[in-house]
């Protein structure tokens, strides 16, 4: 077997796709081991974080503090803190249906769906560009033109994985 040819094939894959695949693999492994409840909670928390963060500048007490956070890294950290808080709330709200694990196909659906939702939401938050900037391929595939369809298909896949 020609290892150099195999290495050259994989070396031409953009790093963005590798990061996305590794995240989907981690979420699929978690769903296979513990069921799709954490994947579902994260999938629900990601868009809600976007909604809550957009309402933050108009908040009574936090609005003035949030407006002073002008650096992108601090704004990304604030999004991360909001994501953790909302994830914990969504995990407590959603019911696990007594499932300790899921089937491999359901786990793959859960992992891929959460990865797609994460990328779609990531592209909508300008502050996260300071943490990781996705290339033009990812932006074209998961950008504004197809955002609705990716979110809809991902939530349908999560509904299948939960059922």
Describe this structure in words.
The structure is a single chain. This protein has helices at residues 3-11, 15-34, 37-55, 63-68, 72-93, 104-124, 136-142, 147-162. It is an all-alpha fold and 163 residues long. It has one domain (14-162). Helix 2 crosses helix 6 (104-124) and helix 3 (37-55) packs parallel to helix 6.
Notable traits:
single chain; 163 residues; mainly alpha; 0% strand; membrane; transmembrane helix
Helix content: over 70%
Please outline the major beta sheet: none
Number of discrete domains: 1
Backbone shape: globular
Instruction: State mean pLDDT (0 to 100 scale).
Output: 85
Oligomeric assembly: single chain
Evaluate the radius of gyration. 18 Å
What distance separates the N and C termini? Answer: 43 Å
Low-pLDDT runs: none
Number of helices: 8
Beta-strand content estimate: under 5%
| Secondary structure tally: strands | 0
- What is the H/E order? HHHHHHHH
Structural class: mainly alpha
Transmembrane segments: 6-27, 39-57, 69-93, 105-125, 145-161
Keywords: Membrane, Transmembrane, Transmembrane helix
């Amino acid at each position: 077997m020609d290892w150099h040819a195999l290495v050259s094939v994989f070396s031409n894959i953009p790093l963005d796709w590798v990061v996305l695949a590794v995240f989907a693999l981690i979420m699929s492994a978690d769903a296979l081991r513990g069921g799709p409840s954490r994947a579902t909670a994260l999938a629900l928390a990601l868009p809600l974080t976007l909604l809550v963060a957009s309402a933050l500048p108009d908040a009574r007490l936090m609005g003035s503090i949030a407006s002073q956070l002008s650096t992108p890294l601090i704004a990304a950290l604030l999004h991360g803190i909001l994501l953790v808080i909302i994830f914990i709330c969504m995990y407590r709200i959603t019911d696990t249906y007594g499932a300790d694990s899921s089937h491999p196909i359901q786990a793959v659906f859960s992992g891929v769906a959460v990865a797609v939702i994460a990328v779609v939401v990531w592209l909508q938050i300008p502050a996260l560009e300071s943490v990781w900037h996705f290339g033009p391929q990812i932006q074209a595939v998961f950008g504004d033109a197809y955002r609705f369809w990716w979110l809809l298909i991902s939530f349908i896949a999560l509904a299948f994985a939960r059922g």
